[in-house]
Amino acid sequence: MRLSTYFMPTLKETPAEAQIVSHRLMLRAGMIRQSSAGIYSWLPLGLKVLKNIEQVVREEQNAINCHEVLMPTIQSADLWRQSGRYDDYGPEMLRVSDRHGRDMLYGPTNEEQITEIFANSIRSYRDVPQLLYHIQWKFRDEVRPRFGIMRGREFLMKDAYSFDLDKEGAQNSYNKMFVSYLKTYERLGLKAIPMAADTGPIGGDMSHEFLILAETGESEIACHNECLNNNWLKDVDADSNLGKIVHTFTEKYAATDEMRDEKTERALGSNLITARGIEVGHIFYFGTKYSSKLGAVVTGPNGEEITVEMGSYGIGVSRLVGAIIEACHDDRGIIWPETVTPYKVGLINLRHDDDNCTNACDNMYSLLKDAGIEALYDDRDKKAGVKFADMDLIGLPWQIIIGPKSVKDGIVEFKNRKTGELVELSAAAALNLLKG
Amino acid sequence: MRLSTYFMPTLKETPAEAQIVSHRLMLRAGMIRQSSAGIYSWLPLGLKVLKNIEQVVREEQNAINCHEVLMPTIQSADLWRQSGRYDDYGPEMLRVSDRHGRDMLYGPTNEEQITEIFANSIRSYRDVPQLLYHIQWKFRDEVRPRFGIMRGREFLMKDAYSFDLDKEGAQNSYNKMFVSYLKTYERLGLKAIPMAADTGPIGGDMSHEFLILAETGESEIACHNECLNNNWLKDVDADSNLGKIVHTFTEKYAATDEMRDEKTERALGSNLITARGIEVGHIFYFGTKYSSKLGAVVTGPNGEEITVEMGSYGIGVSRLVGAIIEACHDDRGIIWPETVTPYKVGLINLRHDDDNCTNACDNMYSLLKDAGIEALYDDRDKKAGVKFADMDLIGLPWQIIIGPKSVKDGIVEFKNRKTGELVELSAAAALNLLKG
């Protein structure tokens, strides 16, 4: 992409309203703009990151044979009256009345809707278990939205739902999702810790939150250092000994601030880690809470009626954009993990008005394109300082810098955004490093 | 995908509420389920088609350097008060009040929002022209929603917006989009005709609707037969002689029912075609209607203020799913064009309980997977008749059928869904045909 024709309105000044670093950087990098309180528009650079995260989440859901559906944003209030949550939910639910005066709502979550779909579609135990998910915008009318897209009102969430014949099956679905979440976060370049959690308004018997570590995280956590050891994830396959693996994780001490236990922590000694974290996922097992109320019943092998056992599994997709920035930035800007970066490499032309320099850049850009490497090419009529600052700010993992001197020497400067390391290479060698 | 674990609840009976063929087939094929009046959930098969269409639309927008953004669904009423449309829009707009009593709305379109983003981001003539689009759910509270997703209330639309310095630039953006639309529909396997249209509530000076031909289409149209000649599209490049090409199209006679002209039609003689069509796109040029009210003003080369000239360009993405079915079906079900089909080929195991047969099917499935060909494998414990009917119903372009006899003969049956042609081939030969 040529920056001269792109839509990437970066800001030099830090907007006064932004209290946390991810919000500041997303505004400054031209990733988002506020539309109204807690509601944001995603500009091209931000949307690319959002889509990349969404795609990793999607692939990991598909990998456990969880099927993608898409439920609408506007739901009927009657459905929520069946579960009893219409009155329970409180002012966070955005309530709407349509032109015929029917009560509707903007879905804050989808337990009722997916249970209805299941109930209307599946009649036999033969078609169970089922795992279904969707990635859709939700609305929660926070009383005081803040921290940009980290705590917005309209947000993108992946929510999955499991349907099983019995508790053992439901536990297995829960375990599948548990391990899948750890894999998802690892692919996103994050260290995630699962923690036993309250079930809150979703209800249920078992629940874990997934927190990722970030120095600027919203909550303090304490855990056994083994909780950060994800090495064994590589070898696990979706259907084998999941219970054991989940147990390995959940038996270890891990607690959010309000749950910490001094005695246990003293016993852990040097194995104790304290850190700050950001919640980026939450999973629940809640049995027949919704299936019994919404009639999600199948016929068993002997003709008996079985009310299915359910769980739900959320990942905050838009929230992850902010969480990743909180975990991956420095004083100069964002540092994207390779899996989510909007472009793999930034190409900087230091002298837009020098034909040799521009030709060398155009050639490099063609080479990158031909190799299928997504590059953002700063071909603007701007000073070198502005280009360096913008490129560091937007955080692409690699930079190729070409100026009159490098053209003369037949090299390019190849920069690692994270370490700042700068090496001189031939264009071909730089290309090979990016391909590798 | 193995059908035994998939979520594809097909129906044998035709649902009584469905008045048109696309609605009937989408319900029967397990592509959608109604959530409430005019609001639908997309099940896995339907969602795959929706995503495929979305991706073709996206690629053709990207190809003309139109940049993807994503605006939220919930907008501030104040923004619409600035343009004067908040009061004008009437009961089709879903109006919402948030917990603080602020007037909000579910966007039926996005002229105001994109103009505000542009106005807050672009200050210099150097950064114009700009083409921006997004693919987002919209809500129009139709008084009588019907025809399934063809006339739903919550629907997915691609809307693009152009920003230019003068009328000539705006006309060029309009032309780019005009040609891009014709290419988009062609890639989707559709014959589209652009027709001069009223500008309606968007307003403006120039507008075209794009109708695709379908025997069951909602409106009758008449046109010069040359309007259906898209051959020249292949060679056009986005920046060359677009005006001439648009003119070639727009000078030809083409009229919806209420606009037909008897005298012109008589003169056309055998060049006149009458057909039925479905509207799947609408483009508008409306000058400074929104930019003047929302302050989308840039500084020109001599320091002068320029109010930008705008256009907007819509494609009904979810509507296209229905429109394609209206154009592509027979008595047995849907017939997907290759570009949008949810799976390229359906694999039918005629004898689930015969090990040789199942082994042959499993092998074929592996071959397809390894070749990167998306296959839906009917491995269910069902009768052959049910499998044939379901596979014809869901409309994958190709079928591979394997039964005990074909195993004995070392062949597979290879069926073209559209023509019904059935040939006997080796597994390898079938694979090669699908790869080609």
Describe this structure in words.
The structure is a homodimer of 436-residue chains. Chain A has 436 residues and is an alpha+beta fold. The first copy, chain A, has two domains: 332 residues, BirA Bifunctional Protein, domain 2, CATH 3.30.930; 91 residues, Anticodon-binding domain (Rossmann fold). Helix content of chain A is 33%, strand content 28%. Chain A is built from 14 helices and 23 strands. In chain A, the strands form six sheets. In chain A, strands 3, 7, 8, 9, 10, 11, 12, 13 and 16 form a nine-stranded mixed β-sheet that branches. The first copy, chain A, has a five-stranded mixed β-sheet with strand order 20-19-21-22-23, with helices on both faces. In chain A, α1 crosses α10, α2 packs antiparallel against α6 and α6 packs across α7. Chain A is globular and about 80 Å long. Chains A and B meet through β1, β2, α2, β3 and β4 of A and β1, β2, α2, β3 and β4 of B.
CATH C-level label of the largest domain in chain A: Alpha Beta
Seen as an oligomer or otherwise, the chain set is homodimer
Shape, per Cα inertia axes of chain A:
globular
Quick one: which chains have the greatest interface? A-B, 52 and 52 residues
Proportion of helical residues of chain A: 25-40%
Number of E strands of chain A: 23
Gap between N and C termini of chain A, in Å? Answer: 21 Å
Strand-pairing-aware structural class of chain A: alpha+beta
- According to CATH, the fold-level topology of the largest domain in chain A is BirA Bifunctional Protein, domain 2
**Number of self-contained structural domains of chain A:** 2
What are the segments of chain A in which pLDDT stays under 50 over at least 5 consecutive residues? Answer: none
Number of helices of chain A: 14
Mean pLDDT of chain A: 94
CATH superfamily of the largest domain in chain A: Bira Bifunctional Protein, Domain 2
